Records
---
Amino acid sequence: MTLLLTTPGDPAPWLKALKTHMPQRKVHLWGQTDAATLAQIPYALVWRPPADFFDGLAGLKAIFNLGAGVDALLTHPALPANVPIVRIVDGGMAAQMADYALYGVLHVHRHFDTLADQQKRCVWADPGICEPAETRVGILGLGALGLGVIEKLRPFGFPLSGWSRSLRAIEGVQTYAGAESLPAFLATCDVLIVLLPLTDDTRNLLSAERLALLPEGASLINLARGALVDEAALLDRLNSGALRFALLDVFHTEPLPQDHPFWSHSRVILTPHASAATLPGPAIAQIAANIAAFERGEPMVGVVDRARGY
């Protein structure tokens, strides 16, 4: 059985992982495969496939997305309608995201934003240290990545809460579910960590009205998708001081335009969509297990519900 591959960047690490985990499979790179071969390929491994990627793939049985987020794939104009899409559930990203989130929380908790501002102004003043119990952390999205962040933060003693579409019980975490509980959840978040998938329901979820529900002086960490947040409203809240700080890894437009106010904003640290990357080894191991399950007639892990968008 053969595979068709298009990757984020250099395909060499992916080819190495495929040789390790699926040595019996022949791998074809997109753009280097003739039409007759394309028509026989049952599995495609993709990341942001080109517009004509699916042309000629008449025998396609499953599409494996090389990442957790499938919003870009689901809007592909030629996406086959009846072929299952399978996302990477973790692929090494949970630990990376958790480290990034921990950095953001500690940046706020230990007043490094205040200290950085004081350094620019040559001010020598100790902002003091507060108890962990005084920094309430909320995780918006309780999938694999959100749970990884919770486990990373748990030993530090911060009060933890989480919101998801349907109610989840997590030891030591106050959980909320559904749109009706979102205001109550946001009101508990001194630091809000955004880890939701981008869907029609979550686009601009953090509107001006909902950002205003955060406590005065709260901070925002967005590791998911830029379009979850109303950027103009976020800027307004930062400019007014109602929001203390934002750590942003994702944006409505990427790369972020050079004239965007986030670049130079004193209350913002930004990174270029670099909080986590899918690791080829764990990702291909998961895909190999899913293909084996599929060929045995068993369920695969991470099958996307197209109606929900994840």
---
Amino acid sequence: MAIFPKPLQALIEAFRKFPGVGEKNAQRYAFYLLRQSPEFLENLAKHIVELPAHIVRCAICGLVDESSPCRFDRDTGRDSTTICVVAETPDVAVIEQSGEFHGRYHVLGGVLNPLEGITPDQLNIQSLLERIRNNRVREVIIATNPDLEGETTSLHLKKILAPLKVKVTRLGKGLPMGATLEYADEVTVANALRGRQSA
């Protein structure tokens, strides 16, 4: 016999699909919404429903934005000869907050993880190679997380970028092994950008 009413249980199950959310947190989120006003819930539902219609992936770099090309690829003031490669869009926000990078971005859409079946052909790598070949790119900064998957991705990128004769660097000091870029503070990311090294 179910403990909670069906609509509430369905909401709990929906929250459990979020990354890092277990049963207890899913229940907490569901009961939090239950205590909110109908106006709050309608507004939240409206934002969720409108998301697919107003958000696209940039055809150039893969960044999630309101239009394609994205705001960074439209910005003529940014250095188009330097590309910072990140795993996901939230990583771009972290690097931007550091105030140290003024080039363009390239979002892979994940990192290599053979155990989960994520292979190079599933990442946004081919378009990166095309960008480098078709533009005067001088440096590619690999800004994946310094964990096993991030390092594996970095090594793969370094290998396939080698024939293109472009300078390949990796974020340097400031990011300890196993850290997640998304949760790093601005000073740490700024130090890592300043201290980047050959990949």
---
Amino acid sequence: MFKDISFGQYYPANSFVHKLDARTKLILTIVFIVALFFIPSNATNRVDQAWYGYFGYMVTFAVLLVVIIFARVPIGSILKSIKGVLFIIVLMAVINLFVSNQGEVLWAWKRLHITDSAVHTTIKLILRLVLLIIGASILPLTTTPVAIADGLESLLKPLGWIKVPIHDMAMILSIALRFIPTLFEETQKIVATQKARGASFDTGNLFKRAKALIPILIPLFVSSFRRADELAFAMDSRCYNATNKRTKYRVNKLGWRDLLAFLFMNAYLVVILLDRYYWVFEMDRIIFGGWLGK
């Protein structure tokens, strides 16, 4: 339980992506997410052209492959992030498969039916979710929680002019990201302890399994409050926040790597926008129109 969850875990490496400024990676992650949602999941008024949109997903997959190669992150660590939400992906895909009423009916039973348009839309939904999870997981895998917090604080610095507590928000984020792997590890220890005492978490119906989680949640909450109390005392004893003019051990600086990364991701965004608004299905028709059907 929870052993396959890799969210919030940093993978140390000496790669091109690791050396990028945290602010650059935060901005480019947002650019990637925005571009991914500009890829259409259906053909709107062109239901007969079900292949529309696959070119964007193909380009996105190629971009992620390049980023993963330059990040030198193991594929297994990235796939773990998908495994953690696999049930949600399958559930959304099944629901979407039977909801759409457009297109030619491929299978029907009583009130249930599946159309060709629903199949293509479901495939694109799965591709969008998987690519989104993979792209978002690269940020915590290649950036330490402290660097993410510092980068976020730097990007939100203009909000400090209107008295928004940017530093406190960044510190809260840093602590939360730092303790996510710790809480997962603590949960594994509690589960192992309860199993040694004869507890079972994999048998019975849904309600019995939910009830079996109570011996895990209570010690986990107690441990979390204890860790938070100890951290508060440690920060207070070191006079944290005693002055508003705090200095930083590391100063973020943009370099040539950040410029190349910006150009690369902006080129990806331009290709996606061109495919959606200006190429008018041409790239999808040329590449996928022949074998996905018109």
---
Amino acid sequence: MTKYEVIIIGGGPAGLTAGLYASRAGLKSLLIERGIFGGQIVNAALVENYPGFPQGISGAELGSLMHQQAVNYGLEVITAELTEFTAGQLYNVSTTKGNFEAATIIIAAGSEHRKLGVNGEERLSGHGVSYCATCDGFLFRDLEVAVVGGGDTAITDALELTRHVKKVYVIHRRDQLRAGKTLEERAFAQPKLEFIWDTVVEEVLGEKMISGLKLHNVKTGQHSTLEVHGVFVAVGLMPNSQSFFNIVDLDDAGYIITDEMMATSAPGIFAVGDIRRNSVRQVSTAVGDGATAAMSAFKYLQERG
């Protein structure tokens, strides 16, 4: 079993920043990522609110640069699935690529897309049901699609889709958006967007591919069918905290509880980014979390001797 001083679980902006700071501090550090280095940000066609890029930067490029910088300073990285996480004299991390242990852990496992939980969604996932407009929008060129949700992600997705599709229906369970004012103004000015208010999706229709959505107006009780060729689900995120629930304290929604130094209820374990409670889920704050956690881990190791 290979020993490290710090093991970072998750390779998004928070995890990569933690790895950069820990490596620069001279700590033997390993980062474990199950998917793509850069995390969910790689799906963003353009990141416009990260400082230092006045013209914006693609999420894929930003994630790649963060990864490259951390590795340049000595961070070890592997792509593997976490299979078990246990506490002992050291923390043991079992993965599909081997077993590792460390005195400190930085959890940066992020979150995943929340699903609608309706009939047809799972069966037609990848056959018209998508959770990534940037990834799949081009597949629906000149067709009509729907976006479910009313927050920043949903409206960003809807605007992204207008680059490819004929029309986008935005289905929201309330009568006003939760997105920021700038996004809202852009959405209302976009002629390809049509808003369906006070409405939820009851079923995704279709056999081999989506043919439409069964809708329910929560105010009037009216049921209707909307014919679309695709639906993009953007109704929030769920923290990837299942592997840690018996080791660190979670809130009722499953987010890891930390203090201002990113410390959890377990000694030597820190949590950063989307997985921790009260995160605003922005790249800039994730980077700050990662830097704070790495410095906290360094201090913890010094005090532990």
